[in-house]
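Q: How would the structure tokens look for this protein?
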Amino acid sequence: MLLSIISSSAISSSAISSSAISMVTSPGLPQYGAAVVVGLIALLSLKEVLSASEKWSKTLNSSFNQAILPLLFSFAAIVVFKVIEIV
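A: Here is the predicted structure in token form.
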């Protein structure tokens, strides 16, 4: 009888701790938020500097836009997630 009480309390305490860990861990985008922001700032800065160069072309502009657009969407999703997390 005592053994069953001890084992059931050990199971319930591990279930409580695992659910507490999963409630604290935030899924998805925010864990890479710093990398997204740094990459977006670097690409936007590089695009701005190179647009004043004589090497600037439509192809280069298109390449930068293809790299910047997904980072911009990720940044927007991170901002929305953080706002929802606060509220």
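The chain has a mean pLDDT of 78.

The chain has one domain: 2-86.

Upvote if useful.
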